[in-house]
Amino acid sequence: MEFCDDDLTNFEAEGATLSTPPDAQGYVEHEGAHIWYATYGSGSPVILLHGGFGHSGNWSYQLPDLLAAGHRAILIDSRGHGRSTRDARPHTYELMASDVLAVMNTLNLERAAVVGWSDGACIALILADEAPKRIGGAFFFGCNMDPSGLKQIDERNPLLFRCLSRHAKDYAQLSATPDQFDEFTAAVRIMMSSQPNYTAQDLSRISVPVLIVQAEHDEFIKHEHAEYLARSIPNAKLIILNGVSHFAPLQRPHIFNAAMLAFVTEVLPDGPPTRSSVTS
């Protein structure tokens, strides 16, 4: 029987933890912050970028399938999230995208596919735009490229409460500033409500393969916005994940993982990853 946690009660109670020890982990000092990363396995590289307020452990249901398919997984805690620190500057998706490139440079990764969820998808698309030679493809799940794509959020939704409750517990356990969750979330909310601000013309210059993945019951993103992205990004494809919401990677991993693995298999070459000393 496939794992199912549609109401996130399991996630709230137990979290999503990585049971597999990493092959390597560490910090990259970049732009006033220490950015935590971990790598698992070998093969063609896939970078996993988590959503807002969370951390890389939220990919725990995706990691085993990526490794079984022969990929190398690179997990990163976004600036200010999880084990990564932040400075006093406002959060921006562009700054977090530059953090990802800094990790790639440290690992001597010339090119990788990027799987982004929510805020991580915003980062993935910025990487696809600003560093197309480094990005083999961008898997874009549940996010917007301008504030008009956001729905009016129902604060009474119990899934949102359970998810934020889990994030608060994890932050207290992992962060170098465990007592600053409220300040941290306030700073991230400002970013979410005002960024990114890509126009259709901006989107039209993206040249890497893009898959836009929209949940049938997404609590945050308008369906028509996902369709707009698919029209505006050259050769982008759109798929709908039925029966799930913005939290699909936690709710029904088998559905999310099937789409993810099909995409990375399509965009990544077979064999070991290409390495270089690229620094930009």
TrEMBL record:
A Pfam family the protein falls into: Abhydrolase_6
Residue stretches spanning the membrane: none
Domain AB hydrolase-1, residue spans: 46-259
InterPro entries: AB_hydrolase, AB_hydrolase_1, AB_hydrolase_fold
Source organism, top-level taxon: Bacteria
Record's protein name: Pimeloyl-ACP methyl ester carboxylesterase
Species this chain originates from: Tunturiibacter gelidiferens
